[in-house]
Prior knowledge:
By secondary structure, the protein is mainly alpha-helical. It has one domain: Ferritin, CATH 1.20.1260. It is 81% helix and 0% strand.
Amino acid sequence: MVRKVMNNLQEAMNVQLANWAVLYVKLHHKHWYVKGPHFPTLHAKFEELYDLAAEKWDELAERILTIEGKPASTMKEYLELATIKEADKGGAESDILAGAIEDLKALVSGLEDTAMLATEVGDDATADLFIGQIGELQKQVWLLSATLA
Ligand SMILES: [Fe+2]
């Protein structure tokens, strides 16, 4: 029973890991392809965000290893597992920004569900990791939303 519950948690963690991986690539797309009057600001912001994604992606993978799970580690797995969809090409500056906000909110929601699952199975350290990630993402949602306003 305990093993089964832990497996469910690890599977859910791998979905969020895949979301970070897809977001990491997608934020590069935005960094390279964004165009418009706010290019310098947005180009730099998306770089900051993909650096954040890289850090959180690795942090989560290492947490999965710490609890004796197996983090997904191939693009094939990430594309199968992720709930965040791959980037479309191009788009207006405001659309690219709105898309980023939408993705960050979706990730927050997934992380919240997984944090709850971790709490339910008594893995407070994993829940704590997710809660930290949620707080940082929520701040980024606020910053991007203020830019769009
Ligand atoms: Fe760059």
